[in-house]
Each structure stands twice: as C-alpha cells, then as structure tokens.
TrEMBL record, chain A:
Protein name: LuxR family transcriptional regulator
Protein's organism: Actinomadura harenae
GO-annotated molecular function: DNA binding
Organism taxonomic ancestry: Bacteria, Bacillati, Actinomycetota, Actinomycetes, Streptosporangiales
Source domain of life: Bacteria
Record-annotated HTH luxR-type domain positions: 811-876
Length: 883, 82
C-alpha cells in the first residue's frame, strides 16, 4: 500500500545535494513508508544503505555494527542491480539479522571511522538512511553520529528520521545551507494522495467520503491507513464516514476500535495477544494465542494491511508498525489485564529458548517476576557483555525496582560484570564482595551456580589488577568451573570455563610459565570457538604469541599474525583485545632489528593500549617501545619508556615476567648515558633473589665493563653461561655471551672472545635475534671475523648492514607521531578546561576528545594529564609554532 | 533530599513529587487512558486534561513519551506547586 508521493520523493532527491536530511514528525506520519518507497525505487545511480534502529537501542556498538553492515552491503552491490533486494537486506541488518559479533567494552569510535573509510573508499554517491533514530538511547552512539556527520565525504548524504528532532546539533549545518528538513506539514497526505491511497488499497469510495476521511484525519498517514482497513468490505462507507466525522474521539483510538471490530475473533485475539512482542513468528503466536494457524493469519495481515511487516525474505518473522503495536497493547491492557503476566511468561520462556536472553529478562521484568529476572540476567550478563551488549545489561539492571540490588546476589554480580567491563576494578571488587556475602544466605541449589560465577569473576578481577599469584590461587579454588558442569549449567559453564582458561593462561604467560600458559590459552581458544565466542577466542590467541616469545620469537611472530588475522576478520584489529598480539609482534621486530615494521606495530599497539588496559600488556608495550628507542641509540627516550614500564609493575600485585628485563635494561641505559653510578646504585638495591636473575647479572656485567673491570664482568656472567642461572629468554642468553665476548676482548683473550661470539651467533641464528648485538655494541667484534670461519655469514652480514645507532643528541627528533588533531587537544591539556569544555572549544564531541587523549597518552607514554603535559613540554609540542 | 524543600523552592533536580496538569488534543477513550494509569482525565471541549501527582521529573518524561508514542497533540504541561 505504498503510494508514490511524487512531491516528497522529489524533495528527498533534491536534498541529497546537501549534507543531511532530517525527517522529523510524530508517530504514524508516514516517515518510514516514504523513505522505503524513495529508497526502493529501481535504477538509482546512488548506493543507499537503510538502517532501522531497533526499539530502545542502548548499545553503541550494536548500532554502529548495523550501520557498517548496511553500508558495506549497499556498496557491494553493482550499479545495475535493482534496489529492492539491497533495501530489504539493509532493513534486515537494522531490524533483525544477527549483527556481526562486537568486541565488548571498547568505544564505537573505531566503528565510526570504519564507516567513514567505507564511504570514502566507496567512490560513488552514497545515501545512508537511519530510521527511528529516536530509539537510539546511547549517548556514545549519538556522539559518534555527530562525529560522522561532521566528517562526511562530499559525495555522501545522511537521512535521519524520527519522532523528534535529533540531538545532533545541526544548527551550524542549517546555517551553512547543508540541511534539508521534512516535517509533519509536508508529510500530511493531500486530498489527492488520500484518494490514491484508497485506490491503492483496492477500495472504490465516493470522493466525498474520502474528503471526510482526509479532513477528519488531517492527512495523518496512520489514520488514513486505519480507515482504509476498517472500510475494506464495509457495507456502508457513507455511514462510516458520517459516524467517524461526528465522533470526538482521537482518530487513532476511534479507528482502532472500528478496525478490530471488523476482524474475525481469531485475528482479534492474535493481534492483541502478540502485541507485547517486538517481533513474533507463527510458533510464538500459536503459544500466545493457544491456537494454531497463526502464521497464516500473519501472512494474510501483511498482504492486506500496512501494519504488519515481515522481517525476513522467507516471511516467517513479523513485527507491527510501532504505533499500531502500542495501540494494540493498550487495548489488551484495557480488555484483558489479568492475562498480561502470563503472556509475558510465555514470551520469556520462548525468548530464553531462542537465544534472545535480553528479551527474556525484559518479559520476566514485565511479568513482575523479579527474582527469576535477576537469576536469568546473572546467568546471561557475561555472555551479553561478550557479545558487545553491555549497554543492554546496564539498561536491564536499571529496570529492576530501586533497592533490588541490595538484596540480590545475582544483581550484585551483574554489577560486577558491568564495572569490570568499564575497567573499574575497585567498584567491581566492592560489588563482588556484596554478591559473595548475599550468596552465602541462599539455598544450596542456587548457591552452587552463584559460586561458579563468583569464582570466575574473582579470576577476571585478579587479572585486571595484575594479581598474577592471586589468579593461580583462585584457579586452585575452581575445580567446579573446570570440570564439565551438568544439565542446565552447560551454557553458563562453558562461558565461564573459557573465561577461566583465558585468565589462567594470561596469568601464566605474564609470570613466564609459557608452557602452561600456552596450553591453557590453546584450550581456551578451542573451547571459545566451539561455543561461538569469537571474542574470547581472539583474546586467548592474542596472548598466546607472548607465551612463545621467550622460546622462539619466530614462532611468536607467526602466532601473533594468526591472532591479528582472526581479529581482523571480526573487525577487531584496532580493538584493545588484540593489543597483546600487536605489542608482542612489535617486540619480535625490535629483536630481529627491523625498525620499520617494529615502528608500525608499535604505533598500532599504541592506539589500543590505554591507561585502562590490563597491566601486563601496558608493561610489555612500554618495554618494547623502550627497546625500540635503545636500538636506535636514543637511550633517553628508552629510559622514559622503561620508567613507564616500571611504574606499571609498581601497581601490579604480582611480578611481571619481564620485570627483571625492565630493570636490567634501565641500568644498561644509564650506563650508555654515562651514569654508571646510577646503574650500580639501582642494581645494588635489589634483593638477593632478583640480583641473581640472568637479566640483572647481565646488567651488572655491563656496569663492570664500563668500570674497566672485565674479570669482574665475567664472574657476574658465569652462572648465566654455565647454566646455574639460566635465562628463560633466549634474548638474555645471547646478550650474556656477547658481554662475555666483550670482556674477553678487553682482557686480550681474542680466541675465547671469538668462541663466545660464535656461541651467541648459534643461539641468535634460528630467530635472527639481532638486537643484543646492537645493544651491547658487540657488532664491532663481528667486523673482525673472516666469513669463511663462521657458520653464520649471512646473519653477520645482516647485523653489519644495520646502520649504526644514531646518537640521541643533535639527531632530528622524529617526535611521537601525534596527529594534528591530537596536537590541538594536547595544547589544551595544560589548561583547567575539562574534557567536555575542550570538546566545546574545538567543536568536536566529547567522545572524540576522549579518543585523542587516549592516543596522546599512549604515544607520549603518559598515564595521566600532568604526565602528558610534562612529556609534551619536553618534546616542545605545546607551542603551536611547531608541527 | 526529597521532601525537605520548602514550597516554592526551586528544585533543580526535579525530584520533588508534584501535581501535573497535562492538556492534550482530542477526547481520550478508555483504551488510550490505559497509557496513563497515574493520572485522571477529564474532557474539556475537544481536549483532554490529565491530572495527577507524579513522583519526579523522570515520571513526567515517561508520561510525555507515552503522549509522543501515541501521536497525541500535546497542548500544555502545567506543574502545580504542592
């Protein structure tokens, strides 16, 4: 029953010459019908993506994923292809089709950028239609949309439609003449259009009847459509029109009653009893009505009316027009209030069994079954969060009556998950304690299930705090999670088990128990794949590369590349989840002396490592960045990065696998800068256990060499070389042999030196570990080696090929690579302005400022605003003159 | 905080229970009135006045959202001082 509204269609066509069109008008004004008719015309020269925001959308990421999917879909279609198919596919993306999985807990700004780059790369005229924007209840998503509109490429146009003017701050766009608006006044049907609508429905009514309908409905689309439905097969349209005209009821209410009255009882029952659902199929409708044949009725309704829409090409899933559904719900509430809780319970059971946990919780809440709702939400909160629906979890939490979370261990645990997702470990820990104490008062059959969740959250919390020993203790208390759970707990148990394996594997990786870590991470990744949790799989694989780093950087590199490729397939290669793999991959390139790729991966890692990242990853990132600078001879910058790494270690509850390497390299950097005393002092201050580790022994050997005490240096190295204090890092072993070679050289033992170098080369060869040769300065020993006397001629040639490290002083400072917009934000950091105020000054969104600040911190190695300012000042980035 | 403010005191958070009078176009029948269980309705010509105490401004916005969802014509919102 779509009619061609030429004037409005022409208006929309003309509007695409501007940047934005806003269609803003009340419920039932015909916005969606107009846009679908406009977008669905065949033979258009532009690609059109159509996204409908689902009811009460709280998840920024779900929204952006739907937009991204629709944009990609629209761009992948050929010019010659009819629009119809693409349009329904686009609608599907917004309404029902499962969106691609999202990475939980990260900002949507990455996705906004992805949408923009698709649009730029598309290279053709493009229109993005976003319908029902008033349903978008996520400030973050609205921020993102604002940012999208401000950065739209010239051949792209956005249409937003909704019941109220969108909060997109479009006044500037309007002043620039770049905004087109379609409002209620234009959307009202003219009398001629009303006649066309009646005719399109196959009715032939006298013009005076149509005139009465038009006048009484004031051209309101929903009113006209309801009237047409009521008039289908009506014996006396003249009388209908007269009575309608004489009634003082609102149009919608009057016509709804008329329309329902004309339906057979079975249809009436179906309409009312399914109205509580956002979406319904034949099976669910049969359950709700207690009858059979519902699917046939739904199909007939869609064929005969404009108020039922099928959501899939097979026409098995339906929804009502929003306003129509609302009207039916009110009528149900008026006529059969007692039935409503029972209907919600049926809907909840069905939703839970059909992988719609959020709908199920919502229906239980609507039925007033609060404890059941809390239990279900607690069981599913982790899964929902991992699916990128943390916003939904929060919204469901808020829908409980005030104070409910003070009595419910389940809600306390859901709060824990929500806080962990926001990287707020302190708040999470507080909620977890409340949950633990409330759970103790529960009957045993509930307690076991709660214990499972609590144990798993303890583990996750320990990991976020860098409490590596704590994790291993917690795992000791975990047998119920790690043993296969029974019956209904299987789904919950699998999620928790995969998460437990991830946390355990990560703890083992960071505490340099690589074999255990690798085993658990591999197992976790396999389980995650089996249960369809790609995010957990990527998380496991992202850490797995690190477990191989000590043994074989070449293997670590392959593992990281695999993990990044998988993340990329899900669109997560710029998400925090992949940070460990990015940093580890950068490490392998630093170690093999390839500064180009090392810089590239460090940059990518820097964009996703933030002060909120887990400590293990932050420490690795700073350490590797420091080694990168040290390899270039910039020991000042290296020291700063090592300092950042050390301060991460300070806030960690457990010792990081690389902590000794950080300390050793810090001392080495001091030596290189001629501050041997500082190096000696910091090494002397270490306790015996740390002092005996190979990394620290190497550092002390370096100090002795600087002191011109090569004998003493050799004594320091002896336990490392003879295997009494073996290093778990191949890198450290190579370094020890090279330091020994330098000591021998200084003693005039050229033959021994030569042998030590050859051993170092033997160890370095399989993974091409070039860094120690650069860092120790041992490359000069290589120059003297006749190539026919070594098995490593190629490696030697490669090492000698690397340009000599440039001294820090006087060399051109490449700067930390801040973008112009990041520099603009950086220059506001010394002021007292809040982030929101900075956003106002720069006319960008708060979200954008947050993103810039995150990147500034990462690039400057700062953990807070004052550190960023300090660092910016040192690099002379704060004056606008530079850059 | 609720209940401690004197009458007429400006209430920036809107968390005071207040009596509201909301006028919409058309005559609302029993079906539409199901949408406003907290309010009583009386007809005033071809308009309907919904009156009742709402606990805070969130409740008011809830009512306004219903009015929007039903496509009703909102004519006036009046907050009576308690």
């Amino acid at each position: 029953m779509l009619i061609d509204r030429h004037d409005l269609v022409a208006l929309l066509d003309r509007a695409t010459g501007k940047r934005v069109t806003v269609v803003s008008a009340p419920a039932g004004s015909g916005k969606t019908s107009l846009l679908r008719a406009w977008a669905g015309r065949p033979g258009q020269d532009r690609a059109i993506a159509f996204v409908t925001v689902p009811p009460d959308q709280h998840d920024a990421q779900m929204f952006w994923l739907a937009v991204l999917a629709a944009v990609r879909e629209a761009l992948s279609e050929g010019h010659g292809k009819g629009r119809g198919e693409g349009l329904s596919a686009g609608l599907g993306a917004g309404l029902d089709a499962d969106p691609p999985p999202a990475a939980p807990g990260s900002g949507g700004s990455v996705l906004v950028d992805a949408v923009l780059s698709e649009l730029r790369a598309g290279g053709r005229r493009f229109v993005l239609v976003i319908d029902d924007l008033h349903e978008l209840n996520s400030a973050e998503a609205v921020d993102g949309l604002r940012s999208l509109l401000s950065r739209l490429p010239p051949d792209a146009h956005v249409v937003v439609a909704g019941r109220r003017d969108p909060p997109l701050r479009l006044h500037r766009t309007r002043l620039d003449g770049e905004l087109a608006e379609i409002r209620l006044a234009q959307l009202r049907f003219t009398e001629a259009e009303s006649r066309e609508l009646v005719a399109a429905a196959g009715l032939s009514l006298p013009d005076r009847v149509v005139a009465v309908l038009h006048e009484r409905t004031e051209g309101w689309a929903a009113g006209l459509r309801l009237a047409v439905l009521s008039l289908a097969g009506h014996p006396d349209p003249e009388r209908f029109a007269a009575e309608f005209s004489g009634s003082d009821r609102t149009v919608a209410e009057y016509l709804l009653a008329e329309m329902l009255e004309r339906q057979p009882p079975g249809v009436q029952r179906l309409l009312l009893r399914t109205s509580l659902m956002d979406r319904v199929n034949g099976e669910l409708a049969d359950l709700l009505t207690g009858a059979t044949g519902s699917e046939r009725i739904l199909l007939e309704l869609e064929d005969s009316a404009a108020f039922v829409v099928s959501l899939d090409p097979e026409r098995t899933l339906f929804r009502y027009h929003r306003l129509f559904g609302d009207l039916l719900r009110l009528e149900l509430r008026r006529t059969q209030p007692g039935e409503i809780p029972a209907l919600h319970r049926i809907a909840a059971r069905w939703s839970a069994a059909h992988a719609r946990p959020a709908d199920a919780v919502r229906h239980l809440q609507a039925a007033g079954d609060w404890p059941d709702a809390a239990r279900l939400l607690c069981d599913r909160a982790l899964g929902l969060t991992l699916d990128g629906r943390a916003g939904t979890v929060t919204a469901l939490l808020r829908a409980f009556p005030p104070g409910a979370d003070e009595e419910s261990p389940e809600l306390a645990l859901v709060n824990t998950i929500a806080e962990l997702n926001e990287s707020r470990p302190v708040e999470a820990a507080a909620h977890l304690e409340v949950g633990r104490s409330l759970a103790a008062a529960r009957p045993p059959e509930h307690r076991n299930r709660l214990a499972l969740t609590i144990a798993s959250l303890d583990l996750l919390l320990a990991r976020m705090r860098g409490d590596l020993d704590g994790i291993r203790e917690q795992v000791g208390a975990l047998p119920p999670v790690l043993s296969v759970p029974s019956n209904a707990d299987v789904a919950l148990g699998s999620d928790l088990r995969a998460l437990a394996l991830l946390n355990l594997g990560v703890a083992e990786a960071w505490s340099l128990r690589p074999d255990d870590g690798e085993r658990h991470l591999t197992e976790g990744a396999a389980l995650a794949r089996d249960i369809g949790r790609p995010y957990l799989e990527v998380a496991c694989l992202a850490h797995r590369g690190f477990t191989a780093l000590s043994r074989s950087p070449a293997l670590a590199r392959r593992r990281c590349e695999e993990a990044i490729a998988l993340a990329s397939r899900h669109g997560w290669d710029a998400e925090p989840v992949i940070a460990p793999a990015l940093a580890t991959l950068a490490a392998t390139f630093v170690w093999t002396g390839e500064p180009g790729p090392a810089r590239e991966w460090l940059d990518r890692a820097g964009r996703v490592v933030s002060p909120g990242s887990e400590p293990g990853v932050r420490l690795l990132f700073h350490l590797v960045t420091g080694m990168f600078h040290a390899a270039r001879g910039d020991h000042g910058r290296a020291l700063e990065e090592y300092g950042s790494a050390a301060s991460v270690q300070e806030v960690m509850a457990g010792e990081h696998a690389l902590a000794n390497l950080v300390t050793g390299l810090t001392a080495a950097a001091h030596v290189r800068l001629g501050r041997t005393d500082r190096a000696r002092a910091m090494l002397d201050a270490l306790d015996d256990e740390r002092a005996g580790t190979p990394e620290i022994r190497n550092a002390r050997a370096l100090v002795r060499l600087a002191d011109h005490a090569p004998e003493a240096a050799r004594r320091e190295l002896e336990p490392v070389l003879d295997g009494t204090a073996p290093s778990r890092l191949r890198l450290t072993s190579v370094e020890a042999h090279l330091l020994d070679a330098l000591a021998c050289e200084a003693l005039g033992h050229h033959h021994t030196a030569r042998k030590a170098v050859e051993t170092a080369l033997d160890l370095a060869e399989p993974d091409r570990l070039i860094l120690p040769f650069t860092l120790t300065g041992a490359r000069r020993l290589l120059e003297a080696i006749p190539l026919h006397e070594t098995a490593h001629a190629t490696l030697i040639a490669d090492i000698l090929d690397i340009p000599r490290a440039v001294p820090a002083a006087g060399s051109p400072e490449p700067g930390p690579g801040l973008s112009p917009s990041e520099l603009r934000v950086l220059r506001f950091l010394p002021t007292n302005l809040t982030r929101l105020e900075i956003a106002g000054e720069l006319s960008v969104s708060l979200n954008t400022v947050n993103t810039h600040i995150r990147r500034i911190y990462a690039k400057l190695g700062a953990t807070d605003r004052s550190a960023a300012v300090r660092r910016g000042r040192e690099l002379r980035l704060l004056s606008a003159g530079r850059s | 905080m609720p209940g401690h403010l004197s009458p007429g005191h400006h209430d920036p958070m809107g968390d005071d229970p207040s009596v509201y009078r909301i006028r919409v176009g058309g005559c609302l029948g029993p079906t539409f009135l199901e949408a406003f269980p907290a309010l009583t309705a009386h007809q005033d010509g071809d308009e309907t006045v919904l009156t009742g105490a709402l606990p805070d401004s969130s409740a008011l916005y809830g009512v306004l959202a219903e009015i929007e969802a039903l496509g009703l014509d909102l004519l006036e919102v009046h907050k009576a001082r308690p």
